[in-house]
Amino acid sequence: LASLSLPSSMHLIQVDSVQRWMEDLKLMTDCECMCILQSKPISIEKDEHNELLLSSQYSTCDNLQLLLKRAWIISTELTRIAQKLEKGRWQRVHSMTVRVNCHVRSMINEYNTFTRNASEEMHQLEKLLIDKCSEFTAFTERCLQTEDEEILESMKSCINKTLTTVAQYFGQLIEMVLTHEAQNLLRQIELSGSPYVMESAISGLFSLAQEGAHLCRIIAKEGGVVALFKICRQDCFRCLYPQALRTLASICCVEEGIHQLEKVDGILCLADILTDNSHSEATHAEAAAVIAQITSPHLTFTQHLSSFLENMEEILTALVKLCQEASSGEVFLLASAALANITFFDTMACEILLQLNATKILLAACSDKGIVDTPYSRDQVVTILANMSVLDQCASEIVQGNGVQLLMEMLFEKSSSGNPAEVAACERVQQKSAVTLARLSRDPEVADAAVKLSCIPRLIKLCRSPTERNNSDSVLVACLAALRRLAIMSPGGLEDSDFQQLVKPRLVDSFLLCTNMEESFV
């Protein structure tokens, strides 16, 4: 039932299932018996008496989180109703319909306690949804009063149609509510001259943007990118720059956000911030985060960033400087991530970085464990080196900066926590270090340094031992390529069995041999 699916704004952070159940429990307990009480106001007065209601104790952000959790529960219940209906579980269908009816009324009531300026259109949609939920409950109740299979089967299509309508009204209401809240926050930013009010509104926008791509599209559509860049162009609001830029980085994960950024000359604004030495390091770091977001190689809609090329050299210069002067690992990570993405974005970037001595600066930073302190940071550094290694001039700089030694160390990258994201980052570090070695080893000086540092035995180990590469096929392919390049430059460094299995055959044959090695050792 595609019509029952909610927008991606309903996405919630993945947490432990027991913790999720505990959080949901307080919203689901005794919902049938509380339905009537919760769906009526305690008093007709709208001021002090309504403060008795639970939801009014929270801030706007807390209320929105409560609303989104309630909406997530309703969405889940609607999907389950469709499944039970398909199986003809009429008793379960009815009890779940009653529960959805309760949740819908509770959600609307909770939302109306903290929203004072809801539109007439929203109230009409709320009424439509409540009426349709009541109709839905009545339908399912009638189904319990008969056991005639033919009658039940004939009613099923009618119930399905009502279920689809409920889901449709519900999705429209959530969309309208979230749009309304985004408009309210943007109105506060536009009309208030108070930094405190604006800071609170920006914080609310950031919280909304964290709920997923759909929310980011709503914010962009309602003028969020324009409003935030307007702040970043006013010196009197410099204290708000980091927060505004952080929110921009979140919103610009969607095409609509980047289009708006382009329309307001956002690239030029970011370049001005990055090159202005009077700004704080925090401001520079958040500007780098926006650059990293809009140049991400995972996005497919960056081709229109024509103004980026015009400002690329000064942006690269500022980012290299930020890497060199970074006071923390987080600042270095943001700046290096932006640099890494730009090297994918345009090939000319690598030539500019070479002129800026970026190789030397990045290699020096890697020796400071307080700055390059995670696999994520090393992933950015080795990405830059891999993309720069296509340039012939890069090889000598990497050798002079002990870069081959660093690449060798990266072949040993292992996760200390076992966290899936960190494990994936370690795999990328191993893969890209092998790719960089393969590209650079066309230079005899690099190949000689790699052989002297025992890179060949390590590459063989990674090929032959699946656990060493965390069973990663991409690491295996990269290591086979690097090994073959080094074998050409230094054929005496391999035993005959390694040569016969890992170098002489076609790459695909060696790959298949290595991927089956785990089975042969058992």
Automatic annotation (TrEMBL):
<dbReference type="GO" id="GO:0008093">
    <property type="term" value="F:cytoskeletal anchor activity"/>
</dbReference>
<dbReference type="InterPro" id="IPR045789">
    <property type="entry name" value="Insc_C"/>
</dbReference>
<dbReference type="Pfam" id="PF19427">
    <property type="entry name" value="Insc_C"/>
</dbReference>
<dbReference type="GO" id="GO:0008356">
    <property type="term" value="P:asymmetric cell division"/>
</dbReference>
<dbReference type="GO" id="GO:0000132">
    <property type="term" value="P:establishment of mitotic spindle orientation"/>
</dbReference>
<dbReference type="InterPro" id="IPR011989">
    <property type="entry name" value="ARM-like"/>
</dbReference>
<feature type="domain" description="Protein inscuteable homologue LGN-binding">
    <location>
        <begin position="13"/>
        <end position="57"/>
    </location>
</feature>
<feature type="domain" description="Protein inscuteable homologue C-terminal">
    <location>
        <begin position="70"/>
        <end position="522"/>
    </location>
</feature>
<dbReference type="InterPro" id="IPR000225">
    <property type="entry name" value="Armadillo"/>
</dbReference>
<dbReference type="Pfam" id="PF16748">
    <property type="entry name" value="INSC_LBD"/>
</dbReference>
<dbReference type="GO" id="GO:0045176">
    <property type="term" value="P:apical protein localization"/>
</dbReference>
<dbReference type="InterPro" id="IPR038205">
    <property type="entry name" value="INSC_LBD_sf"/>
</dbReference>
<dbReference type="InterPro" id="IPR016024">
    <property type="entry name" value="ARM-type_fold"/>
</dbReference>
<protein>
    <submittedName>
        <fullName>INSC protein</fullName>
    </submittedName>
</protein>
<dbReference type="GO" id="GO:0045179">
    <property type="term" value="C:apical cortex"/>
</dbReference>
<dbReference type="InterPro" id="IPR039921">
    <property type="entry name" value="Inscuteable"/>
</dbReference>
<dbReference type="InterPro" id="IPR031938">
    <property type="entry name" value="INSC_LBD"/>
</dbReference>
<dbReference type="GO" id="GO:0009786">
    <property type="term" value="P:regulation of asymmetric cell division"/>
</dbReference>
